[in-house]
Amino acid sequence: MIKFIAAAVAFLWIPQFAFAQTDTLKNITWSAYTEMYYCYNFDKPYNHEQDAFIYNHKRHNEVNINLAYIKASLSKAHIRSNLAMMVGNYAQYNLSAEPTWAQFVYEANVGIQLSKQNNWWLDAGIMPSHIGFESAVAADCATLTRSLVAENSPYFETGVKLSYTSDNQQLYAALLLLNGWQQVQKYDDVQKPAWGMQITYSPKPNITLNYSNFIGESNYGVSQRFYHNLYAHLQMSADLRLTLGFDMGQDFYKNPKQTVTWSTPVVIGSYQIKEKHKIAARAEYFNDSDGVIISSTENGAQILGASINYDYQIFENVLFRTELKHYHSEQRVFFQNQTSPYNNFRITAALSVKI
Prior knowledge:
54% strand; 16-stranded antiparallel beta barrel; globular; mainly beta
C-alpha cells in the first residue's frame, strides 16, 4: 500500500517540476503553518511531559513547536494531490510508533475524479481523519488545545477513500478502506484491513450534522474495535457558534472474551466579540471506566474537563490564543499532583502563523 501511494504521488509530482510548465505551476498552491506555544501545568511534571493521554501541546514550562508544516497541493483537470512535511510535538508524540520516515509526513495523497457528471472521487494515501470535528491545526479549531476525545481518536489515516458530494453541497458521503486506527504502517500481526464510513448533511446553511465510524482491529490485533462519532455544528447567530459531539467506542476481546466501552460527550461554544476578538468555552466528559484508553488506574478514568479560550487576531494570518483548562477525575489520574491527584489546572498560550 505505502509503495503504491509513494509511486502515485511521485507520478503526479515529478513531471510537474521536471518540465516546470507555466500552466502546470499555476495549478500548484503552497501553504504553511507554524504554531509556537508555552504551557504551564500546575502539577509541575518533573520530566516536562503532560499526561500520557495528551499528545498536543505536550511540553510543560518550555517554549516549543506544536506543529509546523509546509504543504504543496496540486489541482488539475480531474486530479488532485497533497504533499506536506511537518515537525513539532504533534508529529513527535502522535507518530512515535511509526517508521522514522513517516513521522515527518503530515499528508501524502492523490485523488482522481471518477465521474465528470457527478462529484465522485477516489483518494489514496495519508489523509486527515474522517473522525471528529477537530484537527491537529489549532488555528482551525474553536479552542487552543484539543478535547480529550480528539486526543484519543485518529488525527490521520492511511488508506483508500471513495467519496461523493451532492450538486447542492448539502450531502457528503465516504467509504474508506484503512490500514488501521491512526496508522501509517500496519502492525505485523494484523492482516485484515479496517473500514470506515462518513456521512455529513447540511439541511440548512447554519446546520451541519455528521456521523462517522471505524471498524477494525486494534491493540496490535488482540481486539476488534467499533467506534462511532457524531457531532453537530450549529451557527446560532452571526457571532455565536455551538458544537455538540458524542463519541462511543467498543473493543471486543476473544481471549478472555469480554467487551469494554468508553464514551465522550463534548460541548463547545465560541463567540465573536469584535472583529479581532473571540472567546470560546468547552465542557467535556471522558468516561473510560473500563480503562481502554487510560489504563493507569484500576477503574480506568472518568474525567470532567472545562476550559475557556481567548483569541486575538493580530493580523490576517497571525493568531494569538490563550486558554485556561481544568480537569477533575474520579480516579487518581494526575500522579504529579501529590496534594490533589484528582484535579489539574493548566494554562496555555500560542502564537500561530498560517499562510
